[in-house]
Amino acid sequence: MGKQILVVDDSAAVRQQVGMALGHAGFEVVEAADGNEGVSAVDGNPNIAMVISDVNMPNMNGLEMVSAIKQKPSHQALPIIMLTTEGQPALIKQAKAAGAVGWIVKPFDAGQLVATVQKLTA
């Protein structure tokens, strides 16, 4: 089985698209529908190699989730990239300050996404 990638997005369609792209590349995909589920998934699964998250979600947004995950010393090295329709430089700066290592704007290119995941989980 390939490395586990957590995909956090409130859109089931986006989770499915990302999951298919990563699944074809040999990754195992774990899904969460919001930041709360994302934090729980990371806390409960030490095998997650990377997180891909939307920014705008109910309950806990992507930036809050990144901050919550990165507060734990055991998750400091976990790569997190944001996959979102948002492209404002201020938001990107906030995400990087919180601990995200990348930013991909939707609609995304599946090949680019897979290449990014492969690079960050190598």
Write a concise synopsis of the structure shown.
With 122 residues, the chain is of the alpha/beta class. It has helices spanning 12-24, 35-44, 62-70, 89-98, 110-120, and strands at 4-8, 28-32, 48-53, 80-84, 102-105.
Provide keyphrases for this structure.
5 strands, about 120 residues, alpha/beta
Describe the structure in your own words.
This protein has 122 residues and is an alpha/beta fold. It has one domain: 3-Layer(aba) Sandwich (Rossmann fold). It is built from five helices and five strands, in the order βαβαβαβαβα. It has helices spanning 12-24, 35-44, 62-70, 89-98, 110-120; strands spanning 4-8, 28-32, 48-53, 80-84, 102-105. Helix 1 crosses helix 5 (110-120) and helix 2 (35-44) packs parallel to helix 3.
CATH class: Alpha Beta
**What does the overall shape look like?**
globular
Number of helices: 5
Structural class: alpha/beta
Into how many domains do the coordinates divide?
Answer: 1
Main sheet: strands, sense, barrel:
5 strands, parallel
H/E order of the elements?
Answer: EHEHEHEHEH
Note the beta-strand portion: 15-25%
Measure the end-to-end span. 15 Å
Proportion of helical residues: 40-55%
Please count the beta strands (DSSP E, at least 2 residues each): 5
CATH topology: Rossmann fold
Low-confidence stretches: none
CATH architecture: 3-Layer(aba) Sandwich
Task: Name the assembly state.
Answer: single chain
- If you compute it from the alpha carbons, what radius of gyration comes out, rounded to the nearest whole angstrom? 13 Å
